[in-house]
Structure formats: C-alpha cells, structure tokens
Amino acid sequence: MGEYSEALSSLEKALEIQQKTLPSNHPSLATSYNNIGLVYNNMEEYSKALSIYEKALEIFQNTLPLDHPLLATSYNNIGMMYKNMEQYSKALSIYEKAVEICQKSLPSNHPDLATSYNNIGSVYNSMGEYSKALSIYEKVLEIWENSLPSNHPRLAASYHNIGLVYDNIGEYSKAFSYYEKAVEIWEKTLPSNHPHLATSYWCMGSVHENMNDYAKALSYLERALDILQRALPPTHSNIKDVKENIEIVKRKL
C-alpha cells in the first residue's frame, strides 16, 4: 500500500503544478486525473476513483469531439468503478455510451470496439445473465481472433471470460479448458508475478474444488496466492479471499 501512497502523492503534486499553469479545461489535466483515478482503483477506493474519473470526463466533454476515443476511455473507466461498486445498471448504461462512440469512430472489427463489448459482457456476467454474457464474449473473441496475434493478452482475457461464464453455469470441464487457454498465453507473455496469472490459477483451483478434486484445487490456489502476495499489497481483498478458499479446500482433503 505504501507504493500506492507514494504514487498518489507524486501524481497529486504534479496535478497541483498543472492546475497553476494550465487552463482548467486543458486535456493534460484530464490525463492526470485519469492517472490518479487508476491509483485509487488499485487501492480499491472506488468512490474516490469515480469522482476523479468524472473530472477527467468533464474536461474531455468540453474540449473534444463527441466521438473522440478518449471519451470512450473515460466512460469505460467510470463504468468499471460502478461495476466494482456492484451498481450494475449504472455500469451498463455508461459502458453502452463507450460502445456507441466506438461504433461511430472505429471499424466493426477493431480490437478496441471489442474491448467495449467485453466490458458489457462482464456486467451481464456479474448480474447473473450468463447467456447474454456468453453471447457477447463470443463476439469479442471472434473480433480478437481475427485482428490480433494468436498469443495476444487480450485473447487470453477473452478465453478467461468465457471460462468464467461456463464456470458460473456449472459446466466445469468447459470452464477449465478455456482457463487453460488463457494461462497458456499469459505464461508466455506476462511476468510470472502478474495478477492475471493469479486470477486464472485461482479460477482453475475453484473449478477443481467444484469437481471434488481437492488436491489439484489446492495446488492451483497456492500458486495463485504466491503470485498475489508478490504482486499486491498485503491488505488486498484478493489475498484474504484466496487464503480463505485454501483453508476451505484443506478441510475437504
């Protein structure tokens, strides 16, 4: 958490200087707000992040064309905060604004358009509307498979998301198969302590737990915990959740 506090302090000092030297609606101020919002998001202080991201959006709305990609990015950032705070209908409404902009400004097979669809899929998944989520995630995968290299991290994210939906509807072998595809790409393209890898191992552990294969479940969960402890502050909720999951599995062995 200390690293985040230091980052926040540096970014806020830089913002203070910019506020004294730039017009109040200068796009560089919006970029600084976005950077500060990202730190608050990583600290899981979502309402603070939301407030900061909204300041960035306001500047972009006043200075950029209505179909500018940076506006879509701002909507995606705000949508993510609402999703993290479990305000799903608000998240959906904001994410749809991002999609609307991307549809006007990008080709139908553009990877960034697929990213906006992907965000909507994640909200449907969180809302338990799994058939809608799966349909969107498959559309995203099709765009990314046709426009990105076969080992691109976005493809891994897509496989992982489809795995999540199958996991949620109890189709565990299908879920595991998609998680494996994601891990295969992430192991080749990401640092060994990247949280994405931890998330996949965690999900693979949960699948094995649901299939009553507790020894394999424990192995994957311990790998997830090892990465999270190297990658995140010790107070992060994911570390606590995986530790609890490990204790549950140990009792089932």
TrEMBL record:
Keywords assigned by UniProt, alphabetized: Coiled coil, Cytoplasm, Cytoskeleton, Microtubule, Motor protein, Repeat, TPR repeat
Summary of subunit composition and partner proteins: Oligomeric complex composed of two heavy chains and two light chains.
Subcellular location: Cytoplasm, Cytoskeleton
One example GO MF annotation: kinesin binding
Ranges for the TPR repeats: 30-63, 72-105, 114-147, 156-189, 198-231
Pfam families listed in its UniProt record: TPR_10 (PF13374), TPR_12 (PF13424)
Gene3D superfamilies: Tetratricopeptide repeat domain
Main location: cytoplasm
GO biological process terms, semicolon-separated: microtubule-based movement
Family the UniProt entry places it in: Belongs to the kinesin light chain family.
Name of the protein described by the UniProt record: Kinesin light chain
PROSITE patterns linked to this entry: TPR, TPR_REGION
Function, in words: Kinesin is a microtubule-associated force-producing protein that play a role in organelle transport.
GO cellular component, as recorded: cytoplasm; kinesin complex; microtubule
InterPro entries (UniProt xref): Kinesin_light, TPR-like_helical_dom_sf, TPR_rpt
